[in-house]
Please model this.
Amino acid sequence: MSHHGSRNDECWCKSGKKYKKCHWEQDEKLAELARKGIEIPPRRLIRRPEQIEGVRKASRLTAQILDMVQERIHVGVTTEEIDQWVYDMTLANGGYPADLNYEGFPKSCCTSINQVICHGIPDQTKLKAGDIINVDITCELNGYYGDASRMFVMEGATEEARNLVAVTKECLDLGIQQVKPFNRIGDIAFAVEQHALKHGYSVVREFGGHGICDKMHDEPFVHHYGPRDRGMVLVPGMIITIEPMVNAGDFHLKILPDGWTVVTRDGSLSAQWEHTILVTEDGYEVLTVTE
Ligand code: MF3
Ligand code: CO
Ligand code: CO
Model:
């Protein structure tokens, strides 16, 4: 009688369990939300255990590469050198840097310095004293993706720059704490933006996080601003990134003539941190960690 199939049939998720003992109850709840006009995930976004394990391994490699960057980065290195480190370590571990040739992106990672919000292209630019830089790495390993970024603060950075970096990390952590079944993307967005606003900062609107698994960018779009009652409902087995971009000035941006580099319109500093996150039965698991 159910439009989801019989309660005694095998569950659609291929667990081998009966539907009534597996996803039936959750599907009933989601159908009810959908009737109220709330966006619910299509089944393909509820990842199977082998997919989750694939993303976990790719994410672990991503975190290991960021650890390597963290050890080596210093004033005087060029962003192209950082890119080479990333390329070499990814390949040495059997992975591939997903950014390379992605929609024509020419390098293996994004390096975004000071007023650059995201998608900075590694080049001959040397890191200077006082710079803040985001290094964003997406690894593909055995067909699965992990995506994370961190800020690095060079010696001599102003108190103002350090504060922006620290508060943006807090925004990410507060966003992550909103990840649990039946919360919505808007709950993450609200937590992130309220914290940024409290410190006099603004949150970028045109770019956000994303679903991730066997593609770097999948549904849902993860915005980081606005009220709670927006966006897709979170369900165990979904994998998303949270990656707030926080500006010291206003949230407006422009894209440079290279077609990639996104900068603040007002020239103010910008910071970003990113993790890949699994929605679990009772909350979340951060996947872009080393153990
Ligand atoms: N790592 C970025 C993200 O967080 C995507 C990089 S896209 C590229 O979604 F084209 F710049 F590689
Ligand atoms: Co990224
Ligand atoms: Co991302």
Remarks:
- The pocket of cobalt (II) ion (ligand 3) is lined by residues 147, 209-210, 241, 243, 274 (CB under 6 Å).
